[in-house]
Amino acid sequence: MHSTPRTDDPPVLECRDLAVRFAGDSGEVCAVNGVNLTVRAGECFGVVGESGSGKSQAFMAVMGLLAENGRASGSVKLNGREILNAPRKTLNAIRGVEMSFIFQDPMSSLTPFLRIGDQMCETLIEHSKISRDEARNRVLEVLEMVRIPAAKRRFGQFPHELSGGMRQRVMIAQALLCKPALLIADEPTTALDVTVQAEILDIFAGLKKHTNTAIVMVTHDLGVIASICDSVAVMYAGRIVERGAAEGVFYDPQHPYTRGLLRSIPSITDDPNADAQVIGGQPPNLLNLPKGCHFRPRCENAMAICAQELPPLLERKPQHFGACHLEVTP
Amino acid sequence: MCFMAAKCGAVSSNALFHLKGRDAGRVMLKLIARRLMVAIPTVFIIIVLSFLIIKMAPGGPFDAEAEIDPEILANLERAYYLDRPIWEQFWRYFTNLLQGDFGQSFIFRDRSVADIIIQGFPVSAQIGLWAIFIGAFGGIALGIIAALRKNSFVDYGVMTVAMTGIAVPTFVTAPTMALVFGLYLGLLPISGWGGGALPNMILPIAALALPKIGVIARITRGGMLEVLRANYVRTARSKGLRESIVIWRHTLRAGLTPVVSYLGPAIAGVMTGSVVIEQIFGLPGIGRSFVEGAVNRDYPVVMGITILYATLIIIMNLIVDLSYRLLDPRVEMSK
Hints:
The complex is a heterodimer. Chain A has helices at residues 55-63, 88-94, 116-127, 132-145, 151-155, 164-176, 194-210, 222-228, 246-251, 256-263; strands at 11-24, 27-40, 44-48, 70-78, 81-82, 99-102, 182-186, 214-219, 231-236, 239-245, 314-317, 320-322. By secondary structure, chain A is α/β, with parallel strands linked by helices. Chain A has 2 domains: 11-98 and 180-322, P-loop containing nucleotide triphosphate hydrolases (Rossmann fold), CATH 3.40.50.300; 111-178, no CATH class. In chain A, the strands form 2 sheets. Chain A has an 8-stranded mixed β-sheet, with helices on both faces. A 4-stranded antiparallel β-sheet of chain A has the order 2-1-4-5, with helices on one face. The longest helix of chain A is centred in the middle third of the chain and has 17 residues, at 194-210. The radius of gyration of chain A is 21 Å and the shape is globular. Chain A starts with 10 loop residues before the first strand and ends in an 8-residue tail after the last strand. Helix content of chain B is 74%, strand content 0%. Chains A and B meet through α2, α3 and α6 of A and α1, α9 and α10 of B.
């Protein structure tokens, strides 16, 4: 299918102890806490979790795009260079060039009053000494790469003249303009129809095949992860609770939360009259996290120690990490 | 996918900016023509209503302090057809109007309403346009600065000044400015039009512009803050664009839409004069004529200026609607 990334390559993205806090009226919220992850060239790294698990905010912090009241701490290295909380000027030289971001909602994420071609060309012109004609040619080339029909006509159109799927293609094309080393896609398929979702995923699969770009796929859709990701991190309440190769996580989950997520995927063989499998309870309130393991109130395997100690993320199988007090199942 | 693309094409052909230049011009002309057609009944209704309302007000044009002999009063009223039924009065007024005759002033018997407007309107319009121009530039600049430095010392400073500009009435600021710059410092004339000499215009323009700066700064700040939170501004930042490009290209046009909405009626308002400013600085504008006309029940003068104001409002609103389409291509021309 695809070549597995070599673990001795230098990482494209390396996050150490990444934390994101938001100052709010009712106190400080820790949206992301102690996140460690490494993404290598050519790798597709999936990040799953419920809404509010901190998966998007972690990568907003990487891009330096946190809301005004957000603060990030820890370390983020892009191609070995520390970029967390770098000054705006430094970040602007990296954003759009070395790393790009694909936003969740293609309807509202393109500037409505600028032509598609103009808002794509400006990225190229900002970052390189390039003539308008050269920029135009590159834009058309990338638009065709993401399989936009009649790219020349799209070039002169406004975002509202395109369908949602087309706009998401434009977002992807825009992110690819400068051939970034790292591509972060935040729920790139969530706002789209199922058929369009499949087409968009196909584009990502093509990217993986033909380029060496490291892709981070932030999603709550396990199907997306299963279809293209090499490795996965499962996030819960701002922390990574499980991390490993996609196959390992899917076939031998090490955390009860991951097991719950996998069980909640409806199967074609399920009894259609049976209730859907769900994880009981509610995601925790970040303002008031339960003591010990944050997942304990919803966990079917909770033990006495779970109420006392937060389980560390430990290697439970080779290159497969889990944060749970349960004994490793042989 | 094909179906979707085809559907998109159909929708987009309505949008101005997808059309080639000549088509776009034709669509715009059609829109203007249609709006002007609608304007005719609107103006007619305004004329009817204002005519009735003025007549409903108690008193009449010849209520002097000294008693007038009833016979003389009856003669006067007959001369001006005020003894006729109201529909006949209206018909007389309206048919004259259609021939371009706004009538004679009841009070200043040697002046026609057209004369009053022709003499006064350029004065009011000049002062008003300069004031709104300065107000727009100053207000937009201050509003943008405040929005970009949200919740900072600069923001609070700008907003305090803006609130003060709005809250302190012109009948306080105008005499104060006349006192300081005219009397104490002796820099500027404090009264009179001077045939439109620049020094005579500075103080009235400044007094009129001050509250406009305040209002426009507040509207700009609000509009900019709203748009700065938009997803597409975040996208622009994610592309590594310089902050100046993020602001100028991706924020300003949408951020200033509320200002444009405000400016339309505001321009019509300031062009028809401010009675306070004209009274304090002794300017021969129509704002003063309008209020004097209303006080004296000088029906033709009030009617004439009301029709002028209504027409200006309609024209300005049309211009505002056309500029929305320039600001945002999603607004369709066919409506």
